[in-house]
Amino acid sequence: MQAKRLWQYKVNGSFLGSFLFFVKNHIAFNVRRGRVPAMIGLTELGELAWEREFEHDEIRIFFPYGNDLFLDGTAARKLHSVTGETLVEKGFGFRIQAFHPIASGPIYWSRESGIWLGLDPDTLDIVWQWPDPQGEFGVFDAYLWHYDNDGEFRLVDYRTGEDIVRVQGPPHEESGMGQNIVGDMFIQFYDKERIAFNIHSGDLVWRKQEPDFGFHERARFQGHLAFCGTLGLSAYDLRTGAVSWRQRFEGGSPWLSCNPTVEHERIYVGTNDGCFHILDLQTGEVLLSHQQDFEPNVVKPTLDKQVVVGSLGELACYQLT
User: Fold this and answer.
1) Spatial separation of the C-alpha atoms in residues 69 and 93, rounded to whole Å
2) The pLDDT of residue 133
3) Are 134 and 154 in contact (CB under 8 A)?
4) What's the pLDDT at 253?
């Protein structure tokens, strides 16, 4: 496999990396210019399509849903992905934080008021809300989950507010670095430990230890596998907790410079020696390592056998052959 650069775009500001999405043949991402946040939309040819600046601290992150972009901050905002135009804006009297949307629409959380909000994707009206005084729930499918330090685990149906599951699991002291629900198991990664327990009984299914740090950060999940680490990339079989493979990227720095992106049976990731890599999901084999003149903080594939790679000051698009 080879990579040929198609275009490069110089970013006016500091590119924030994690929030870059492809929507309707456009590339949307956010930057910060000093204290001023901005949103930028590029065409698939790397040309500027639109640009929006906001007041300081007015927006923070965003996610796509359908063909639109949903922003958080001082209000919920829906932007047109092709023009950047604000289609709907609605405030709730407190700051809100966006989460990955679910099938029914965008989800927001407020640290100030301690509630989750499910919004109508067309009007941004509140469809449901759920009290969350501790601010420690996560989102999974049609449920909110909560796992406290004493080991109590809950699944709440956000549409009714009712507990679907409430069991006693293993207690824990530290915060998790990545979680997921796979079948009947809740998976949790810590600095040097990973565990799985049954969400119906609370019984421990497996517990595995790591001798050092650097193997559990940046967790991403695909089926029965998890991909984690900063000291290279590790794959774990979530059915047993065992290591499926480890990739240390010989000949370069082993430290990952961005979160892995898992798509099309491949993993896309960058390292702090300026390379981006494409790996086989099942084996960890490196299919491509391509040297650049900047350190990647995001590597994402498009639908046309292309990869967009970003750093603090620029984006580049490569054709894969």
Assistant:
1) 21
2) 57
3) no
4) 62
Region for 264 from its dihedrals, namely left if φ exceeds 0, alpha if ψ lies in -120 to 50, beta otherwise: left
Q: What is the pTM of this model?
A: 0.90
Which residues, in sequence order, are CB contacts of 35 under 8 Å at separation 6+? 56, 57
What backbone torsions phi and psi does residue 65 show, to the nearest 5 degrees?
-150, 120
pLDDT tens sequence across 73-128? 999 999 999 999 999 999 999 999 888 777 778 888 887 887 888 899 999 999 88
**φ/ψ (deg, to 5) at 159:** -75, -25
Distance CA 242, CA 136 (A): 28
pLDDT of the residue at 269: 95
- Positive or negative: CA dihedral 11, 16, 21, 24: negative
Single-letter code of the amino acid located at 143: Y
Half-sphere exposure of 13 (CA within 13 A, CB side): 18
Helix (H) or strand (E) holding 61: none
Does residue 229 surpass a pLDDT of 80?
yes
pLDDT at 148: 86
Q: Which of 218, 292, 317 is nearest to 262 (CA)?
A: 218
Return the ∠ at Cα 206 (arms to 202 and 207), rounded to 5°. Answer: 105
Structure tokens at 127: 């469809």
Helices vs. strands in the chain: H and E counts, helices first: 0, 32
Among candidate residues 170, 193, 169, 188, the one with its CA nearest the CA of residue 178: 188
23-59: b (≥16 Cβ within 10 Å) or e? beebbbbbbeeeeebbbbbbebeeeebbebebeeeeb
Q: Which residue has the tokens 């001023």?
A: 36
Query: pLDDT of 185-208, one tens digit each?
Result: 999 999 999 999 999 999 999 999
Mean pLDDT of the chain: 90
